[in-house]
């Protein structure tokens, strides 16, 4: 990307979601010479409230549309002539992929193919200043036992419909890069946490339930391990890789920060007892072990040393600090939580947890 002109038109897909909104905010504020087009279908997971602070910026445009709609995608490429794509739009929740795999195949696989075809057609072999940046997950590598780490060369071994659909989209991006010489790269990141995350994922779900004195549903024994990264640090990594990454390459992004689920929930209970002025130990009484997730991956752990040594990125804050900032954000934004957890989410929650 070093040869790209200073003025760029960048299409960000899924910019109204959790990670996408952090990426859009960072790019709109940091790069006034770029124009950021945020394309989002606004599914249950997309929320323009996430971008209130940048919505009137002169270098930002929202486009409501579906990445699987070939005619629509073709039209916006014709109208705006994007130089680059940062592709985040996806169905992203493993439990939902177990309930409804086809939505994941449609959005994640077909949607990515539609975007790649648009880029192929509209860039017409041009490579100068062009880049298709595909944002993916470490879950494509499968599940680890107690030892070892995922590196960029770990063979793919996806085990949930979500990770299989993401793996499939990664393969398509690499195939288009190889076959059609489309400048493209992939980054695979570990679990993110931070502000604006939909409370169906572990950390915001537990924060929300602690606030409302609801049971804290831990799948299985709570011994599964995830590597957690503050979402702002993921957005910083995407910025660095977008500008300095090599086309055709893969970059793993991780927090060097592994936690068992039960330990995270215990820490959250402690932090929240303090914040809410509850006697220590009160929230931990809400912990409830429930039926395990089908096919539950045991451990994910990323070796992010390539990104650190080649491009100089590393996480900016400790997990304890990031978690506290996250708790503070949710406590000060209860209206945001209330509005997105009304309606359809209530129904999902009942279906997912009742009688579990
Ligand atoms: P999210 O579910 O919060 O947001 C997804 C966004 O995509 C939403 O705004 C939604 O409206 C939009 N979208 C969904 N289907 C669409 C379609 N057909 N057309 C246009 N827009 C559509 O997801 P997230 O957690 O922010 O994840 C973003 C990306 O990062 C995903 O590709 C995910 O696989 C990847 N990722 C997530 C994590 C994580 O921990 N959350 C970790 C690594 C990688
Ligand atoms: P999640 O946030 O869904 O991310 P992923 O499955 O993509 O890693 O879940 C993180 C971990 O927390 C995972 O091991 C499943 C577990 N979990 C629970 O124990 N209870 C819950 O209610 C949820 C949503 C997740």
Any overview of this molecule?
Mean pLDDT is 96; it is low at 1-5. The longest helix has 23 residues, at 101-123. The protein has a domain at 8-192 and 227-253: NAD(P)-binding Rossmann-like Domain (Rossmann fold, 3-Layer(aba) Sandwich), CATH 3.40.50.720. It is of the alpha/beta class. The chain is built from twelve helices and twelve strands. The strands form three sheets. A seven-stranded parallel beta sheet has the order 3-2-1-4-5-6-10, sandwiched between helices. Strands 7-9-11 form a three-stranded mixed beta sheet. Strands 8-12 form a two-stranded parallel ribbon. Helix 1 crosses helix 7 and helix 4 (101-123) packs parallel to helix 5. It has helices spanning 18-30, 70-80, 94-99, 101-123, 161-180, 202-211, 231-244, 261-276, 305-311, 319-332, 334-340, 344-353; strands at 8-13, 34-40, 60-64, 84-87, 131-137, 184-189, 191-193, 216-219, 225-230, 250-253, 258-260, 287-290. Helix 5 links the parallel strand 5 (131-137) and strand 6. It is 42% helix and 17% strand. Bound molecules: nicotinamide-adenine-dinucleotide and thymidine-5'-diphosphate. Residues 94, 191, 201-202, 205, 217-219, 224, 226, 261, 293 line the site of thymidine-5'-diphosphate. The site of thymidine-5'-diphosphate (TYD) has 12 residues, from helix 6 and strand 8.
């Amino acid at each position: 990307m070093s040869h790209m002109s200073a003025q760029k038109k960048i299409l960000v897909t899924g910019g109204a979601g959790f990670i996408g909104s952090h990426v859009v905010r960072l790019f709109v504020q940091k790069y006034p010479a770029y124009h950021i087009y945020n394309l989002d279908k606004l599914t249950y997971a997309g929320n323009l409230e996430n971008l209130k602070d940048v919505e009137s910026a002169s270098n930002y445009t929202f486009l409501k549309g579906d990445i699987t709609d070939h005619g629509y995608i073709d039209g916006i490429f014709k109208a705006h002539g994007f130089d680059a794509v940062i592709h985040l739009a996806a169905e992203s929740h493993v439990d939902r992929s177990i309930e409804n795999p086809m939505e994941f195949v449609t959005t994640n696989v077909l949607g990515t193919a539609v975007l790649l075809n648009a880029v192929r057609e509209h860039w017409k072999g041009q490579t100068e200043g062009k880049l298709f940046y595909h944002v993916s997950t470490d879950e494509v590598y499968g599940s680890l036992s107690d030892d070892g780490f995922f590196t960029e060369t770990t063979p793919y071994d996806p085990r949930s419909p979500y990770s299989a659909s993401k793996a499939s989209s990664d393969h398509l991006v690499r195939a288009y890069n190889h076959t059609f010489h489309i400048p493209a790269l992939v980054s695979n990141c570990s679990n993110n946490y931070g502000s604006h995350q939909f409370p169906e994922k572990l950390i915001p779900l537990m924060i929300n339930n602690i606030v409302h004195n609801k049971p804290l549903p831990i799948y299985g024994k709570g011994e599964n391990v995830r590597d957690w990264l503050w979402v702002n640090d993921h957005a910083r990594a995407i910025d660095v890789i977008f500008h300095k990454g090599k086309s055709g390459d893969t970059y793993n992004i991780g927090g060097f920060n592994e936690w068992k689920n039960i330990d995270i929930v215990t820490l959250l209970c402690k932090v929240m007892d303090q914040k809410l002025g509850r006697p220590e130990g009160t929230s931990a009484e809400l912990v409830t072990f429930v039926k395990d997730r089908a096919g539950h991956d045991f451990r994910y752990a990323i070796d992010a040393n390539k990104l650190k040594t080649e491009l100089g990125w590393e996480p900016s804050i400790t997990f304890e600090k990031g978690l506290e900032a996250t708790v503070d954000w949710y406590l000060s934004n209860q209206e945001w939580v209330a509005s997105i957890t009304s309606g359809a989410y209530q129904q999902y929650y009942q279906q997912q947890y009742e009688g579990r």
